[in-house]
Structure formats: structure tokens, C-alpha cells
Amino acid sequence: MYHTVVELDVSNQSGMLSDIPRQIGPRRETSVGGIVNASRAAGSMTFRSNAEFATVILSPVDMEAAFSSDRLQKFQAPIGMLVVNPSNIERTLRWNGLKQNAAIAFRPATYSDLAAAELEGGHWELQPPKFGHIDLWALRLAQVMATEVTRPTQNSLYLDSLLTVFGVHLLRHYSSAKQQMLSPTARRLSVQVSRRVAEYMQQNVSDSIPVNELAKISRMSPSHFIRAFKLTFGMPPHQYLVQIRLQRAERLLLETTLPISDIALQTGFVSQSHLTDTMKRYKQITPAKIRHLR
């Protein structure tokens, strides 16, 4: 058994998850927030965070937990158990076996921005569920995010979208705020808006595009934009961006003599192997074979 003491400083914009030890597991941060795919052997931990963050249990484990100076209480943490950790309250945890969970944090402005866009008046206060509460929707999102951060290369827009949906889910179901009523016509992007969004993605194909930026162009909340985009284009924003990048890469492969590694970087892929793997997955062909078609 081991014990660690951690101060989680979520206000640190440059390293929101930097206070969580690296050996706990892979992690990723976006413009919205961050996630750690945590895996720890039996042990204990005392921590305090300056903001709320969520934990979703990915494998069952027997635990003990206490807030502040309260006595430790024993309980079984089942798969899908959701815990919303309050801010500025010391918490102690103990577990007697392998503990696997997703730790999901949001930047200080994210909750406020999401609440203002998604909820009536933007006034809210998180109301953590009781210990043992299972949330299957939160589990599905957490499992997808946890898998994504273990990949050698990740799609930032994909994680951005998942974190946005997760944050809205917390606000809708575990806060005092009320959800805004949607207009029945606010389901698809208009022709003008869809054109602006597509042009922006084309012009910034090599950059990491935050979902918040696309939502601002559309003058919609992030979660409404994600749904409207899929209804309009037939796929979520991150898949559409991948298609744009592959089309641009294919054109450069056929029309230029640029090295494949340079083409990869110019089209938003982190390396030649990333471009190759993505092209094989979506197009069933490699960049080298496309180049030989010239």
C-alpha cells in the first residue's frame, strides 16, 4: 500500500493536469478540459482541488472515502459509478485492489461558458450524486475518452467534442440550473452557416480547431452545434475534419513532389505514420501508393 498527497490546481491554464503524477496514466488536455485514464495499484490518496472535477469508475473496486475530517466509509465502487469531487475540500481515498477510472477536469471558464450557453440564465451550482450512483451515459463517454488518450496520436477536435458533451451532461443532470428550451427549427445549420464552418475548417486544416471556435462561428452553444453539424453534414465535426485533411493530402500527393512527411504536417497530421495509418483506415490505401498513381 502507498499514500500520496496531491493538490490539484485546475486553474493552471498551461498544465491543468500537471499536478496529477504521470505514472498514474495517459492524459490529454484540450481547450475545454482534460482527462486522465488512471490506473493505480492498491493504495490511498489525499487530495484537494480548487475546482470540481468528475471521476468515472472503469472497473469495480472496494474503497473507503472521507471528506474533510469525516470518518472513512467503506463501499463498493461499481463500473459506471460517477463521483463529482467538490472544490476546496480535502478528500481521502483508500482502495484494496487495482483502481481504474477516468478523471475529467474542466478549465475554470468552461463550466461558466457551457452554463451560459446551455442553461437558463447561466446560474448553476453542481450537486454531486450520492456515493454508488451509476451513470451509464457518463460511463460510455468516459470509456471512449479513456481509450482515445491511450492512442499514440489523438484527434483534438474529437476529445474537445466529447469533453463538451460530458460537461453539458454534468450541468444538466447534476446542477441546480435549468435547461433552455430549444426552438424546433434549431436543428440543422443553415446553408450560410454550414458554408462558413466548412470554409473555416478548410482554411485551418493544419491547425488544432477547438469546438468552441466552430460553435462561435455558428452562433450556437457547443453541444447544440455538435448535434446540428452531424445532422447537416452526416458526420460529427472531427470526422469531417479528417475527411478534409485526407482530401488535401491526396491532392498534394498527386499534384506536388513534396515529401510525404511535409504533406502530413501541412494537412494536420503529427507525422507521416499518422497520415499513413489514418489514410489506410479511411481510404484503404497508403500515401505511397497514391503517389505512384501520378
UniProtKB/TrEMBL annotation:
One of its GO terms (molecular function) is sequence-specific DNA binding. InterPro entries: AraC_XylS_family_regulators (IPR050204), Homeodomain-like_sf (IPR009057), HTH_AraC (IPR018060). The keyword Lipid metabolism does not apply. SMART domains: HTH_ARAC. Residues 195-293 form the HTH araC/xylS-type domain. Gene3D superfamilies: Homeodomain-like. Keywords: DNA-binding, Transcription, Transcription regulation. It comes from the Bacteria. The keyword Phosphoprotein does not apply. PANTHER family: HTH-TYPE TRANSCRIPTIONAL ACTIVATOR RHAS-RELATED. This is AraC family transcriptional regulator.
